[in-house]
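User: Hello, can you help with two protein structures?

Assistant: Certainly.
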Amino acid sequence: SPPGLLPVNSYLPYHRNPDFTGRETFLLQMAQTLLPQPDEAPQVKVAAVSGMGGLGKTQLAVEFAYRYGRYFSGGVYWVGMANEKHVAEEISRLGGERGMKLYRAADNLVLADRVGRVQQAWQAAVPRLLIFDNCEEESVLRRWLPVTGHCAILITCRRPRWPRGFDVTVLPLEVLSETESGRFLQRLVPRLSEAERLAVSHEVGQLPLALQLAGSFLNRYEQLGGEAYIQQLQQMDVVDHPSLQGWGSSYSPTGHERHIGEMFALSVNKLETAEAADQIAKQLLVIMTCFAPGEPVSTELLQQIMVPDQTDWQATILFTDGLNRLITLGLVRRESELTVAMHRLVVACVMGMIDDVQKEEAQTAVRETLMERLNPFSLPK
């Protein structure tokens, strides 16, 4: 569906991004999941676009709103949920004179009453699209999810699963395809050759945010040729390159972080707690840097490295919790039931955050486990 006008009284804080590229099949999948159908009984539908940071989840939600918002006669309403303390205020704003017109400023309603009017309207049999951006916590979703009505709720999040009770349809988002990455870079930097576009997209792992930053950098510094830029990426830790730290880019369509390393570091730093699962997750993060970036790694192998005594069921449970913690934070993704992988830029970020001792200890643990698997009977090596 081509972009169009939003229904009257909608609230969407972002303009459509004219450089949006690709994701056509995914947008159709979102539409099939969320659009109201003719003659269907009013029901609450919930879908979550999930994936690591930098994939463009928020931008995708904006694009969906402009393409399909007109099918929700009751309007499109955006709620930022990154900070739980501000959610009530954001929701109350939707009901004002610039939104749903449920009250006037002159009414002098307290916050609880303003929020209550919006929530009551959400439970009417009117199709509405609610976008809960950066909703990561179960408690937050439980607090604000309409219990009845005809709202479709689109969540953007890093976590790949929600408890069954929420009845959330999870739509996992991946990096752009090679073709989409090339088209995106062609739109941003027309002077690049096809081979240069392919090489740049490979170096940054086809991550949309990284592609956008690379394109902005090359546009700003036109004297830098594509081949020279690629050589720079290859000759240093890629996340340390100025282009991926926001140089040459003064604009973000959704106001998000423009520094790749800092974006991933925020997630890594969430493991700085005394929780046992977080401590295991930190160790596992370092272990995974020993493998080829972006390539699938057997979870059974990782467990053997982390839990040499396979009869230690408590350690096995902690390993599972630690791995799930990394997946929930978007630092690691499931490739299959038996494998996980870490994006090459996450690997580069983690490598820059650990010291030589940690690297050596991790490499030793991996090497010893691999030798044990090759020589299970402890024959002379």
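That covers the first. Now for the second protein you mentioned:
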Amino acid sequence: AAMQFGDDMIMMGCPGPKYKNPKRLGQATQNLYVNVDDVDKHFERARKAGAKILEEPTNTFYGHRRYGAEDPEGHQWYFAREIKARPRKRAARRSE
């Protein structure tokens, strides 16, 4: 299956029989970072729908506002929006 939004596309598929989701493994194997227009509104909607919240909305040192949630299979999702631009040089240096 695939979803398209403007020029962007996300493709999804069913894993094979040997697949073990993060819940079965006991740990996350990756996380997804998705940009949204309004982090706080998105968070409230997810919370009211019963999402397992990993991190309440917060402002990061690198200029994003984000929150984290976990889906029923244990995948970690972070939803964010840039709130201030940071110089690339400084951000790159901080990650070293």
